[in-house]
């Protein structure tokens, strides 16, 4: 193997192959905490050609490969536990081309999400895919998991912004997919096979991303809600008159923890079991008046207890903290996370069923709910009791999963809305995908990766 690694060094630039233990531990994992880390080495390619040579080397030497982007994943999709070579895209971080006329930008896979967002702003444009890890997640990883985030209700998923891809397949072939075309009716659009594929077909090395116009006056409403059923009522009420850019939901327990941890004041006078945060682009006084009219209707119908509307961008940013700070606030409690989705009309019923399941089986566990209610994406966070061994806590949560996922299956939902399958959700894939679907997926992987070297053991 040492001679093989020496051959790999000749493919890469100097100092782009690391084998020290600190690097192995840093680059061989993502944000999940419950997997052992044991990669062979960490490779840092700088070009698509180097990635292709790495893949060919891996096929020749029968070495498995694991992709590593910003390592912000929550499903174990970037974990290297079995002496795989980790291919880290940190050095493929260049924005390579920008066409003002088409509002398309081509960048390497290692470009940080926030870097692309800033590039768009510098050119008076907007990249709307946004989430808590935008400061460290990479574009390639976003595409490989079809990342969603907080603005899906208005702008859609990562998939909706990818106009072209350059990928390296499991055979080491380089494919240029769609090349930024708006219209292309020439058979299968293989670009969409790689979006959300979690690196099991091949590695994304470059992407052509479309941008859009900047919103001019993003305004936030934070509402106190008396009961869960009113969330659907409010979503329908506001969507009827306003084009929302976000519609978020969180529980009172989430609110209390954020206020305590960050020393924030209570944003509205009324305490409530649930809160909603709405965002919209107030491009005119008419839109503001419509929003206020909806708010007043909500008060009259007792769907809203109280609320506050931002009067400036600074105030909007301050209100967003109550939602965006939740994950960071509870991270020290090592929450067991379930990232799940149902259609928005089924959210209330599903939340009630899951609360009932957790309360019945684990009454001592603390549950924190939040999510992107406008697209039916819910984040269930069960907090580890401080006096309980973490492995026992994980085991207990895994026993509840089949009960939760059975309810999800009945409602036609997804076991993973935006975090991917990876290792964490792999045992439960059949709750969202039929036996026939999984067989076709396995057949597709075999076509692109016949030697099973691309992120093996993930998804299925």
UniProtKB/TrEMBL annotation:
<dbReference type="GO" id="GO:0022904">
    <property type="term" value="P:respiratory electron transport chain"/>
</dbReference>
<dbReference type="Pfam" id="PF02913">
    <property type="entry name" value="FAD-oxidase_C"/>
</dbReference>
<dbReference type="InterPro" id="IPR004113">
    <property type="entry name" value="FAD-bd_oxidored_4_C"/>
</dbReference>
<protein>
    <submittedName>
        <fullName>FAD-linked oxidase</fullName>
    </submittedName>
</protein>
<dbReference type="InterPro" id="IPR006094">
    <property type="entry name" value="Oxid_FAD_bind_N"/>
</dbReference>
<comment type="similarity">
    <text>Belongs to the FAD-binding oxidoreductase/transferase type 4 family.</text>
</comment>
<keyword id="KW-0285">Flavoprotein</keyword>
<keyword id="KW-0274">FAD</keyword>
<dbReference type="InterPro" id="IPR036318">
    <property type="entry name" value="FAD-bd_PCMH-like_sf"/>
</dbReference>
<dbReference type="InterPro" id="IPR016169">
    <property type="entry name" value="FAD-bd_PCMH_sub2"/>
</dbReference>
<dbReference type="InterPro" id="IPR016167">
    <property type="entry name" value="FAD-bd_PCMH_sub1"/>
</dbReference>
<dbReference type="InterPro" id="IPR016166">
    <property type="entry name" value="FAD-bd_PCMH"/>
</dbReference>
<dbReference type="GO" id="GO:0016491">
    <property type="term" value="F:oxidoreductase activity"/>
</dbReference>
<dbReference type="InterPro" id="IPR051264">
    <property type="entry name" value="FAD-oxidored/transferase_4"/>
</dbReference>
<keyword id="KW-0560">Oxidoreductase</keyword>
<dbReference type="Pfam" id="PF01565">
    <property type="entry name" value="FAD_binding_4"/>
</dbReference>
<dbReference type="GO" id="GO:0071949">
    <property type="term" value="F:FAD binding"/>
</dbReference>
<dbReference type="InterPro" id="IPR016171">
    <property type="entry name" value="Vanillyl_alc_oxidase_C-sub2"/>
</dbReference>
<dbReference type="InterPro" id="IPR016164">
    <property type="entry name" value="FAD-linked_Oxase-like_C"/>
</dbReference>
<feature type="domain" description="FAD-binding PCMH-type">
    <location>
        <begin position="35"/>
        <end position="214"/>
    </location>
</feature>
């Amino acid at each position: 193997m040492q001679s093989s690694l020496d051959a790999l060094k000749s493919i890469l630039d100097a100092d782009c192959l690391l084998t020290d233990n600190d690097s192995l531990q840093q680059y061989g994992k993502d944000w999940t905490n419950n997997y052992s880390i044991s990669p062979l080495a960490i490779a840092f390619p700088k070009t698509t050609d180097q990635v292709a040579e790495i893949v060919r080397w891996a096929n020749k030497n029968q070495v498995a490969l694991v992709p590593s982007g910003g390592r912000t994943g929550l499903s174990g999709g970037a974990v290297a536990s079995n002496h795989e070579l980790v291919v880290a895209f940190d050095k493929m971080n260049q924005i390579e081309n920008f066409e003002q006329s088409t509002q398309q930008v081509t960048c390497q896979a290692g470009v940080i999400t926030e870097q692309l967002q800033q590039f768009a702003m510098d050119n008076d444009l907007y990249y709307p895919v946004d989430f808590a890890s935008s400061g460290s997640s990479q574009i390639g990883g976003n595409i490989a998991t079809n990342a969603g985030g907080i603005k899906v209700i208005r702008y859609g998923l990562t998939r909706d912004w990818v106009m072209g891809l350059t990928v390296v397949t499991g055979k080491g072939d380089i494919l240029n997919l769609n090349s930024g075309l708006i219209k292309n009716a020439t058979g299968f659009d293989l670009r969409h096979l790689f979006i959300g594929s979690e690196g099991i077909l091949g590695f994304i090395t470059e992407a052509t991303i479309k941008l859009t116009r900047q919103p001019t006056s993003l305004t936030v409403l934070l509402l106190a809600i008396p009961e869960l059923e009113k969330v659907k009522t409010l979503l329908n009420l506001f969507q009827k008159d306003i084009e929302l850019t976000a519609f978020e939901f969180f529980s009172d327990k989430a609110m209390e923890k954020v206020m305590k941890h960050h020393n924030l004041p209570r944003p509205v006078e009324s305490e409530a079991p649930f809160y909603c945060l709405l965002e919209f682009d107030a491009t005119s006084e008419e839109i503001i008046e419509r929003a206020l009219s909806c708010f007043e209707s909500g008060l009259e119908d007792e769907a809203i207890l109280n609320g506050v509307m931002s009067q400036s961008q600074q105030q909007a940013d301050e209100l967003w903290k109550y939602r965006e700070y939740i994950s960071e606030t509870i991270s020290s409690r090592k929450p067991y996370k379930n990232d799940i989705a149902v259609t928005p009309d089924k959210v209330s019923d599903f939340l009630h069923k899951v609360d009932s399941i957790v309360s019945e089986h684990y009454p001592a566990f603390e549950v924190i709910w939040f999510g992107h209610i406008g697209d039916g994406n819910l984040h269930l966070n069960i907090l580890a009791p401080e006096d309980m061994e973490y492995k026992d806590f994980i085991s207990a949560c895994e026993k509840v999963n089949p009960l939760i996922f059975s309810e999800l299956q009945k409602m036609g939902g997804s076991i993973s809305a935006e975090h991917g399958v990876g290792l964490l959700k792999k045992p439960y894939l059949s709750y969202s995908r039929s036996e026939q679907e999984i067989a076709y997926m396995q057949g597709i992987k075999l076509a692109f990766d016949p030697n099973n070297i691309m992120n093996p053991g993930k998804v299925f």
